[in-house]
């Protein structure tokens, strides 16, 4: 396990109290808290180096560009990207997937084609493909999940028989905690002639990602779930694909030459980064990666799965609690319901004890329909959580049970 006492000391927000209680932050799948090193890096950038990036002829602008591009180098190393040019900065997972759907999708998907997603995908890995399919007269096929919350590999195989152009799936489910066999899914997608799009939103913060080992074509993630600022993130893509793709946004910086009636494009990845970029996001993301690498991603993953095991064990002891998702191959995400207490009521009551959990459909409505529930409560862990947090969760749940007269 990680030394959570020293990790917690790095996060100023964790010193605050909620209703006179220690803050127990268990909503990390939604967003993570930020360590002082990330906050300081952003402040340092604005204090000493801020200017608009690229094309600057003065020292400050050169420094700002270096800071921005250092963030790219950090991301490339963190996910073992094919090259620095394989990293396109975006606002996060949602924008990354929309970029692929708009650029690669619009160019390559024709009427009658198929796009495959899974029933455990987040709306941001479903809706962009629905929009694309509607525009192109293509069909979206959703692969089913098994009883124990995994991608149904037989149905995945059947979906590939129609030779889809695109196959998209999550590395880790935000609503079940399932860790999917992404290299295997990618191999199968390639054998069917499709490109593979991996939603890495719940993977990059929590486990060691190697896009070259997965061999996926596109990998999307969000910085704000991994200690970095809101509005940070990237799309990682095979450089040959990026070279062949048309731009996503037109504007400054993404061009090579602009004539009266047409333009030519900048080199990758700048072709996809029109307009003034979010430099502070790249700086913060670089600092977040340095922090995570210092802890070691294998230790981070071990820490969280150990917490998930303890949480599942303790929650199972509460009579009316139902836990969703598989028992193994899971990340630090524990979704549950408690008798007939509405998850929103549960989250509100837990807040009285300073325990922050999320309640709702978690942007996975097709999955909720398959689980036969409108909503679940979800506790999700990160590097600063420990067994004391699980104890706080369990004792707050027992109190809620008493309040609602649900067997505990
Ligand atoms: N995919 C998954 C699996 C997620 O958990 C999330 C965030 N809840 C997203 C995509 C979307 O990420 P963002 O809102 O940061 O773009």
Helical content (DSSP H or I, runs of 4+): 40-55%
Task: Count the beta strands.
Answer: 17
How far apart are the first and last residues' alpha carbons, in Å? Answer: 29 Å
Number of helices: 14
Bound chemical compounds: 4'-deoxy-4'-aminopyridoxal-5'-phosphate
**Order of strands in the sheet with most strands:** 4-10-9-8-7-5-6
> Uncertain runs with pLDDT below 50, 5 residues or more?
none
Spell out the key features of this protein.
globular, 2 domains, single chain, alpha/beta, 408 residues, binds 4'-deoxy-4'-aminopyridoxal-5'-phosphate, 40% helix, Aspartate Aminotransferase, domain 2, seven-stranded mixed beta sheet, four-stranded antiparallel beta sheet
Describe what you observe in this structure.
40% of the residues lie in helices and 16% in strands. It has 408 residues and is of the alpha/beta class. The protein folds into 2 domains: 4-30 and 296-404, Aspartate Aminotransferase, domain 1 (Alpha-Beta Complex), CATH 3.90.1150.10; 39-293, Type I PLP-dependent aspartate aminotransferase-like (Major domain) (Aspartate Aminotransferase, domain 2), CATH 3.40.640.10. The strands form 5 sheets. A 7-stranded mixed beta sheet has the order 4-10-9-8-7-5-6, with helices on both faces. The chain has a 4-stranded antiparallel beta sheet with strand order 13-14-17-16, with helices on one face. Strands 1-2 form a two-stranded antiparallel sheet. Helix 2 (36-48) runs antiparallel to helix 10 (279-295), helix 3 (59-78) packs across helix 10 (279-295) and helix 4 (93-108) packs parallel to helix 5 (127-136). The structure holds 4'-deoxy-4'-aminopyridoxal-5'-phosphate. 4'-deoxy-4'-aminopyridoxal-5'-phosphate is lined by residues 29, 92-94, 122, 124-125, 170, 174, 199, 201-202, 222, 363.
């Amino acid at each position: 396990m990680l030394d959570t006492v020293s990790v917690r000391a790095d996060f100023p927000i964790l010193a605050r109290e909620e209703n006179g209680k220690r803050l127990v932050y268990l909503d990390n799948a939604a967003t993570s808290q930020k360590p002082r090193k990330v906050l300081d890096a952003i402040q340092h950038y604005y204090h000493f180096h801020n200017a608009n990036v690229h094309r600057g002829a003065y020292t400050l602008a050169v420094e700002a560009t270096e800071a921005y591009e250092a963030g790219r180098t950090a991301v490339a190393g963190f996910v073992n990207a094919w090259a620095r040019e394989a990293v396109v900065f975006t606002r996060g997972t949602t924008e990354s997937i929309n970029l692929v759907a708009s650029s690669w999708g619009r160019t390559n998907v024709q009427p009658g084609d198929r796009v495959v997603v899974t029933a455990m995908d987040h709306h941001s890995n479903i809706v962009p493909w629905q929009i694309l399919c509607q525009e192109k007269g293509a069909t979206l096929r959703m692969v089913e999940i098994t009883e124990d919350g995994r991608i149904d590999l037989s149905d995945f195989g059947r979906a590939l028989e129609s030779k889809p152009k695109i196959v998209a799936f999550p590395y880790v489910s935000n609503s079940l905690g399932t860790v999917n066999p992404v290299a295997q899914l990618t191999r199968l997608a390639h054998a069917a002639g499709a490109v593979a799009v991996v939603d890495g939103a719940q993977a990059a913060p929590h486990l060691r990602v190697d896009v070259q080992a997965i061999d996926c074509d596109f990998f999307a993630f969000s910085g704000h779930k991994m200690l970095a600022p809101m509005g940070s993130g990237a799309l990682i893509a095979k450089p040959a694909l990026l070279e062949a793709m048309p731009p996503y946004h037109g504007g400054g910086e993404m061009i090579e030459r602009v004539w009266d009636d047409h333009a030519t494009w900048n080199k990758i990845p700048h072709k996809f980064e029109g307009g003034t970029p979010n430099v502070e996001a790249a700086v913060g993301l670089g600092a977040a990666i340095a922090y995570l690498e210092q802890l070691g991603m294998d230790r981070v993953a071990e820490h969280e799965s150990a917490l998930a095991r303890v949480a599942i064990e303790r929650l199972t002891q509460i009579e009316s609690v139902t836990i969703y998702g598989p028992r193994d191959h899971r990340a630090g995400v524990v979704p549950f319901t408690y008798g007939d207490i509405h998850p929103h009521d549960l989250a509100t009551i837990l807040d009285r004890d300073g325990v922050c959990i999320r309640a709702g459909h978690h942007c996975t409505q097709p999955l909720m329909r398959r689980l036969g529930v409108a909503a679940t409560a979800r506790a999700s862990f990160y590097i600063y959580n420990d067994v004391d947090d699980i104890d706080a969760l369990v004792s707050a749940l027992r109190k809620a049970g008493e309040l609602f007269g649900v067997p505990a």
